């Protein structure tokens, strides 16, 4: 009963936060006008969780709350890998960010931390609708002949955008699926390839659908915020919806799968090789050093001159 009440309060709080941020955006009130994207996402995560709990009696925030910090930390780390690639690709830049570095970096943390929780909540919410039917499990055993070709393809897809950014940039949204999936399988983690081979394909379709829906939200909420990203692709720049060229929306489905594979890989590492408290602390410390270096790099190369005062 306590969780039912708490879930309802979470949903109401999320709705209230979203409406407050929206009014603040319309009236130009801070911090809502600058950070509308971040306010919108965290309020959405809360509202989605309330709906999920209402329909299935369990949810991320009510029953698996300890998973939220892990999702958020992994979300920051994995998104910053794409930010690192963007230092070479130059596909997006940030503008309208506040001048004080501590405030700007807090914005990075809170914004980047929403990617995985928002995606995972959306997928779980879509799953409750009965969308895409049911799995037809075959029970087929997954072989190992695919492992080496898959990893090699992942390396190629990762190198193409880094070596030839003008023409290879779209492959960054596919590379980690193929690069990390074999390691997830070998390490005993969750494997999308294994699920597919066994006929358990509904989740994969749901992830892709969640990616498309989140892609719309990512671009919509970014468009209206003062602190935002803008795209400067080598081509495909015409016919934009919000800040994203129309063809760019095709990348959100594979990006969702990338997020899942990257998270599965991190979970496998943590459970198989970083399970001790000391190893966990070192792993978190290493990630935080990576965050610091990437925040400095983003400030120097990705943030457009003339940040907000």
UniProtKB/TrEMBL annotation:
Name of the protein: Uncharacterized protein
Species this protein is from: Desulfobacca acetoxidans (strain ATCC 700848 / DSM 11109 / ASRB2)
TM regions (residue ranges): 12-29, 35-53, 73-93, 105-122, 143-164, 170-192, 204-224, 244-266, 287-308
Record key words, sorted: Membrane, Transmembrane, Transmembrane helix
